[in-house]
Amino acid sequence: MAMHFYTNIFLLAFFAITGILFPSDNNMVVGQGCKADVVNLVNNCGMFVLRNAPRVDPSPQCCAVVQKANIPCACSQVTSETLKALDMNKVVFVAKFCGRPLPPGSKCGAYNVPPAAYLG
Fold this sequence. Notes:
By secondary structure, this protein is mostly helical. It has one domain (29-118): Hydrophobic Seed Protein (Orthogonal Bundle). It is 55% helix and 3% strand. A two-stranded antiparallel ribbon has the order 1-2. A hairpin with a 2-residue loop joins strand 1 and strand 2. The chain starts with a helix and ends in an 8-residue tail after the last strand.
């Protein structure tokens, strides 16, 4: 029963994040080049970066997507609404775990990546 609950929460978060990143009235051209990267990141890594979920090591599939993704472009798609659904400390953790750490002091949306001393 608990697994069914977490699956429903994940699906809800997935659709919320996708809707936030790609609203239906999307007339902007900037950032569309990495739309597939963002969708792949959400599909394969979303469960590892959700707020109010336990922090666990990402899957090999997630890391494969992180390795191929245009991370700066994906970060440019992070909005204040997205930040409500994501735990950015987990995003930093997943990126580092997968061998693509976010540079300390860089930005991912409105989130400032903390100095290396604070990355866990």
